[in-house]
Amino acid sequence: MIHTFPNGGVHPAEDKFAAGSSIKALPVPETVIIPLSQHIGAPAEPLVKKGDKVKTGQLIAKSKGFVSANIHSSVTGTVKKIDNEPDSSGYKRTSVVIETEDDQWEEGIDTGTSIKKNITAGPEDIITRTLDAGIVGLGGATFPSHIKLSVPKGKKAEILIINGVECEPCLTSDHRLMLEKGEELLVGVSLIMKALNVTRALIGIENNKPDAISHLSRLAQDYDGITVKTLKVKYPQGGEKQLIKALINREVPSGGLPIDVGTVVHNVGTAYAVYEAVQKNKPLIERVVTVTGKGVERPSNFLVRIGTPVKTLIEAAGGIPGNTGKIVNGGPMMGKALNNIEVPVNKGTSGILIIPAPEAARKPVVNCVRCAKCVSACPMGLEPHLLMPATEFKKWDLAEEEKILDCMECGSCSYICPSGRPLLDYIRLGKSTVSKIIRSRKQ
């Protein structure tokens, strides 16, 4: 049976150019820039200073508060400075700049290639090691993963859902991880199940990845309670609420969380990171990043140390094509344009997309023709054609009433609009403002 969510969604071109490209580890760069805010929540507090020597995997910044994440050095070298450096958002963030030397890993980290299947850690130990390793959601949200593993009082997790959908066009890092690290990934799923005290896990994969479905289905036969489920190709199938509806037919309420319907959702990359943290004592210091685009000479999936300049990845894929109009951090639907390719890869960097100039140009904006295509496409059941003018004319009460905060920023509305209206741009602005207004009411 092929599953999907019932409401909304679009079908952009998949353009998975790097799907056949095996993961290749990039060399350690001469300098890394490691931001202290690579996650939702409070920035980490630095534990090092200029001139300090650090090893690969060493803790260099401690999480600050409940919603925060540890930061580790991805290289061996000398701290050149701690300063405000631009990140992929374009804003300057406090970062540790390290000049690299030959790799010397922190003692106790297992850098071997053998797979450790035997699980000896208990639930609390798994959560603690996830916290210590600085693991965040690697599907893009970068929410600290230890929080998701800690079920709130009064709630109960019944089913773990693992997101292997990768519905964003062009990106293939999760696809390759499932093919090349399937065994480790399933051990990671088992660890998360143990931490949550659940006996059932579902791995959702869209049916444009038949090799990953076949591979993980075969491996999962040796793991109790883990089942691979096939999903129809439809964007944004990988949204938490859409995935839950598609797989177990439960609907997360407005303003609610997956745990409200008895489930927790983690990305396949996060499951692999949990495996490395618990079984190998390895913190999150590297991740797989797709570099792709129609004009890219060698669309690739690279294993990259956190802090590596984006420019290094692009050069490894053949450089910037001559007709480039835009370079995007992420995919074409939810990604954001970069204005500087010297910015570093961080924990949330899933891909770098290079878009040719003709496709990068926006359509001319004309008046809304009331076609309601944006309403039909919205997977959250919102009315984007109302939310944009509510923001434009600062009608914040209307925006809140129309549930602007339920928007998942998938971009389906802007993609489908025949009038070229920048619906998502305005809705993002409106969400930010309404969130501030709601917080101010609570103070």
List its traits:
single chain, Rossmann fold, alpha/beta, 443 residues, four-stranded antiparallel sheet, six-stranded mixed sheet
CATH names the topology of the domain at 123-280 as Rossmann fold
The coarse silhouette is globular
Strand order of the largest sheet: 1-14-13-17-15-16
Proper CATH architecture of the domain at 123-280? 3-Layer(aba) Sandwich
Unreliable stretches: none
The main sheet comes to: 6 strands, mixed
pLDDT averaged residue by residue = 96
- Give the CATH superfamily of the domain at 123-280: NADH-ubiquinone oxidoreductase 51kDa subunit
**Relative strand content:** 15-25%
Gyration radius over CA: 21 Å
Count of extended strands: 17
Q: What is the level 1 CATH name of the domain at 123-280?
A: Alpha Beta
Q: Figure out the total of helices.
A: 14
Classification by helices and strands: alpha/beta
Distance between the termini: 49 Å
Helix content: 25-40%
What is the topological layout?
Elements: E1 23-25, E2 31-35, E3 45-46, E4 53-54, E5 59-62, E6 71-72, E7 77-86, E8 92-100, H1 123-132, H2 145-149, E9 159-163, H3 173-180, H4 182-196, E10 201-206, H5 210-220, E11 226-231, H6 240-248, E12 263-267, H7 268-280, E13 286-292, E14 300-305, H8 310-316, E15 324-329, E16 336-337, E17 351-356, H9 357-360, H10 373-377, H11 384-392, H12 396-401, H13 412-416, H14 423-442
Parallel strand pairs: 1-14, 9-10, 9-12, 10-11, 13-17
Antiparallel strand pairs: 2-8, 3-5, 4-7, 5-6, 7-8, 13-14, 15-16, 15-17
